[in-house]
């Protein structure tokens, strides 16, 4: 079952976001298995993130890599997970 994950983020500037992406890529998790969509948005001094995953298990696996990276960068992110009703591409 696909899920939508809204992260309530604090402390993530666009610079920290780009550094997090670099660190995730270096760890082999730049494009994690099961992540269907990733969107960052909002003010550049406090970006927010919404992802779509194919399953809760895929999110949990990525979280094991993501959480230490965010912690090291001083970023707090609280996920709110909801089941996807329908995904329409395009």
Describe this structure in words.
The chain has 90 residues and is of the alpha+beta class. The protein has a single domain (3-83), classed as Alpha-Beta Plaits (2-Layer Sandwich), CATH 3.30.70.100. The protein has two helices and four strands. It has a four-stranded antiparallel beta sheet, covered by helices on one side. A hairpin with a 6-residue loop joins strand 2 and strand 3 (48-53). The longest helix has 18 residues, at 56-73.
Structural class: alpha+beta
The major pleated sheet works out as: 4 strands, antiparallel
Oligomer category: single chain
Radius of gyration: 13 Å
Q: What would you say the CATH architecture is?
A: 2-Layer Sandwich
Number of helices: 2
Q: Beta fraction of the residues?
A: 25-35%
**Shape estimate:** globular
Order of helices and strands: EHEEHE
Distance between the termini: 20 Å
